[in-house]
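FW: tagging you since you asked about this chain on Friday. Here's the raw sequence from the shared folder, copied in full. Didn't touch anything.
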Amino acid sequence: MPCNLCKMLPQHVRSDKRHERLQQVGLTERISRTGKARAAWITYYICEICETQWQHVDDPLNTMAGWSVQKKLGFPERCDSSPAMRVAARHS
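HL: got it, structure written out here
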């Protein structure tokens, strides 16, 4: 169940604002476009408090881009400890 900080984070609104307990998972992914169109950036996060999994899309061409809750990011099954350990596992 999402914590109060996650509940207050607006979804599908282009904003870089995030709450202070979100930890980035993995690397930011750059999606290139042909021509002179600006690239989109996708970053995944997990909340340290409630373990809600988030995706942030920074796409200047998409008005619905922004924060969205993810159903599953595909964490390894063996990482069943704290969210910080899961974040470390994604970097290895």
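FW: The mean pLDDT is 77.
HL: agreed, and The longest strand covers residues 22-31.
FW: great, closing this out.
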